Amino acid sequence: MKTDVLIAGAGPVGLTMASELSRYGLSVRLVDKNTQRTDKSKAIVLWARTLELINRMSPNCADRFIETGLKTESVNILSGSEHIGHADMKEVDSKYKFVVMIPQSDTERLLEEHLATFNIKAERQTELTDFKETSDGVTYVLKHADGSEETAEASWLIGADGAHSIVRHKLNKEFHGSTLLSDWMLADIYLTGVQGTPAINIYWHADGILALFPLQGTRHRIIANVGESSGPIGEGNRPAPTVEDIQRVLDTRGPGGIKAEDSVWRSNFSINERKVDDYRSGRVFVAGDAAHVHSPAGGQGMNTGMQDAFNLTWKLALVSRGICQPEPLLSSYSAERSPVAKVLLEFTGRATEAALLRGGVKQSIRNHVASLVLGFAPVTHTMANLLSEISIGYSDSPLNAHTQHPRHGVKPGKRALIRENEPPVGFGDAPRFALFAESNNLPSALLLKYSALLEATPRAPLSPDSLSLVRPDGYVALATKSGDWNAVDAYLNQFLPKAS
Description:
It comes from Tunturiibacter psychrotolerans. The protein folds into 3 domains: 3-44 and 103-177 and 275-354, FAD/NAD(P)-binding domain (3-Layer(bba) Sandwich), CATH 3.50.50.60; 181-270, 2-Layer Sandwich (Alpha-Beta Plaits), CATH 3.30.70.2450; 393-500, Glutaredoxin (3-Layer(aba) Sandwich). Helix content is 29%, strand content 26%. It contains 12 helices and 24 strands. The chain has helices at 12-23, 48-54, 61-68, 104-116, 166-170, 243-253, 301-320, 329-355, 360-373, 377-387, 444-449, 485-493, and strands at residues 3-8, 28-32, 45-46, 70-72, 74-79, 82-88, 99-101, 123-124, 127-133, 138-143, 149-159, 176-179, 182-192, 200-205, 208-214, 219-228, 259-269, 272-275, 280-281, 284-286, 292-293, 434-436, 466-470, 476-481. Strands 1, 2, 8, 9, 10, 11, 19 and 20 form an 8-stranded mixed beta sheet that branches. Strands 6-5-14-15-16-13-17 form a 7-stranded mixed beta sheet. The longest helix has 27 residues, at 329-355. It is globular. 45% of the residues are buried.
């Protein structure tokens, strides 16, 4: 039987894709060449915006991730014991006024358990080896653990298969960017002597950077650069750091008094900063690390990939179910998400460059300027919203209404505020837009015409005298004055299938 969607890669991005598409009633196959989900911590941060979107997946879904992880409320930049900058997550414009520190192994487990509620599980030791787009779908070849091959069909293919994506390679999409010519150490290790409440602490030192991320108990993630390299860089090209190596870095770059105990995982890695230009080729899409890879500065790579999934799935569901025509919905995926990755690459690149700045005078100027700028409350508030990805929006999206009325409510492309005691937009078994408007004189014909696209009941306006139409992923599509039902009709009508 032909499947609606084949997803290659069962990491956090692929699992999120599969869960959301299954929630919307599409048939899904999720394949991964690995024998099991990761047992490593890998990506360890869930930011507020990702938690908001996770909470649409099922009632209180985000709570399971929060309960499993560690809530952390601060991000600090330090030099020894000198405080240079601070971002207080309690200032984030979300009910999730914290960051959740959770190993990727737990994130994947929780996503697998959620996916299982739709009777779907990842097909492990199953590798996508080839595919070809047809007029109405994609024919693909899978290689199974016993060496046998299977040829099958899907209407759509999503490559969430990591930085070495077979989907990206088969599409001949160039991975633009560069690799930093430096080696880095990574460890999950138990530490004693860490002072204060749990916080993400980033230390700038003459020798380089040291980043400490708290996990449960005394377990921490450590990231530090270990110098430039004239030869091959990354994992496998030098021995994994020893506990003694880690202790030397802690003593040199840290505040003092921190002792390294038993380690859980130790490795080397290199930093790649790359992305493709276009996330789509016909009926084939790429997402997550298959589309963009980043410096770990900020811990936003996995979050960005999962948000790729939240962006694409509602659009693909509406098209696959015949509710909407393919364009402009499907082309908007890359148009919206590619700029987000571009900005993130620039941000993490500059952050890494600043942290690795060499020279005593330059470092002193950097520390002074950073301390001065980050001492202003508006700056720290902006920094908290930036890190938490609450500030992400799609101001240049092709899905934004052309008739914008900035004085009436939130501008199109911006995230709509999520109010307490109100279900998140996009919940349930179908992706629907939500009207935030006074219902006086609401034409019943409008709700009837768009019953498959609109929630049945309008919600209270986002601001006085305003009418807002909010997309299933929580971003404002249209903002106008109260009672402008013609604008709503004109906007939604563009998505309906055209009569042949």
